[in-house]
Give the backbone structure.
Amino acid sequence: MNPRTRDGQFGLGGVAFFASGPGKYARFAPAAGGVTGKKFSRFEVFYLQQPNGGEFNLEANEKESRVVSTSGDQVTSGFAEIKTETGANSFSIRTTSGDVRVFGAVLENDDPGIVYDSLGVNGAFAGLLATAMNEQHWIEQLQHRKPNLVILNYGTNESQYASDNQMSRYERELRAVVLRVRTALPAASILIVSPMDRGKRGPGGKIITLPSIPKIVEMQRRVARETNCAFLNMFAAMGGEGTMARWHDGQKHLVGADLTHPNAEGAQTVGTLLYMALMESYNAYRERLARR
């Protein structure tokens, strides 16, 4: 988080970018490899509208462009987009005058499918959203994005310092985050995903599970039940206690030396577990509808 920001307005993802005067820019282009991120038709910028705000220019393919003023009578969230035909398009944003604060950008195309936004701040914990980010501002940002499903995945960073007093605070903060999402999106579904296993070196160098992890998992299960959220026990799904020891010492390493962060193959495994859980529940939902 930018130390210049004392008003708690960090956009949807917890990041703010400041520019003063003309010539500051960012450019976005199609991915060079892989199968996704190859074509776009829409570029939308999230910014802060404020009294005496500056201006920036949005451009598509160095041809189509529009000028956006961030000046307004009051401080509020602003959104500006530029559209073009779907293809291997590049987009850019460049300041032209004054002070501008932007929070990020969305690049999408018109093809059918699912949009998955992954929003994470390094070292983040539930209290960051519950206490450090301006509530009304964040609600504006989330309402504009209007997701059908919000996934909350906290607990790993909290597990490092999980005394009984801190566990009570973590629970209050998680409930506050759920309330914020409910306030912004009453019709959206919420899924709480527990932390993964987290290992540490015990006596004799043996890798053991942090004792706080099962406690956090059970707290999150209770909060999900009492706040009418779905719950995925990722700790259990990946193998439960001792998983990081097996992932680290096995023939195929799936976790880094910190015994916390999975490597690329481990991340793929966790992602597959999440996908399978979502699809299993979705298919069960469709079967229930068919029986009505």
